[in-house]
Design brief:
Elements (H helix, E strand, L loop, with lengths): L8 H13 L10 E6 L2 E7 L9 H4 L2 H4 L16 H11 L8 E6 L3 H9 L4 E6 L4 H10 L2 E4 L16 E2 L1
Parallel strand pairs: 3-4, 4-5
Antiparallel strand pairs: 1-2, 1-3, 5-6
Helix pairs in contact: 5-6
Length: 167
């Protein structure tokens, strides 16, 4: 194997985020996230119901039943977002996320963005967009760098997200 055939560090961690998303129990969107510092994984998370509570796969999705568009009425979702689960897992194990980077399959919503800003995430790598301009605005204002990284097996070829493109 040559050096050129190895995945870059960002692609490697994004691949892991997509693998983590496969544990999701959300009926609408599978999301995975990985917190990384100094090329070491600190915590992972995927979206789904809290531990010990019926998963959406079992109970159904109220937002889907009510026809609520993506990005709206998060308060009636029984699931916890992948980014929130990363923060929770790190906290449960006494791991600081200050100065870390987050690799996430989907752009974070406004609620997650506020949490990521406050826990000290300095850069967020995303593969797929999410309809939340308020979130993007807040991240810019806080100085959190956002880099779009197209994931080869999950993003269509016409997607123009490239490494280095910031939002």
């Amino acid at each position: 194997m040559t050096q050129d055939s190895r995945a870059s560090w960002p692609q490697y961690f994004m691949d892991i985020a997509f693998l983590v998303s496969e544990r999701s129990t959300c009926l609408r969107r599978k999301v995975g996230a990985v917190a990384v510092k100094d090329k070491r994984i600190l915590a992972t998370g995927y979206n789904g119901a809290p531990s010990g509570v019926a998963h959406c796969l079992e109970s159904g999705c109220l937002r889907q039943e009510l026809g609520i568009p993506s990005g709206q009425r998060h308060e009636i979702c029984r699931g916890i977002h992948a980014e929130q689960n990363v923060i929770i897992q790190a906290a449960m194990h006494g791991i600081s996320l200050r100065g870390a980077e987050l690799y996430c399959t989907t752009f974070p919503c406004f609620i997650c963005s506020k949490m990521l800003i406050n826990c000290g995430i300095r850069r967020i790598w995303v593969s797929e967009n999410y309809p939340d301009e308020f979130s993007a605005s807040m991240l810019r204002e806080a100085g959190v760098e956002v880099i779009h990284l197209r994931h080869e097996t999950h993003c269509p070829a016409e997607d123009d997200g490239e490494v280095g493109e910031t939002r």
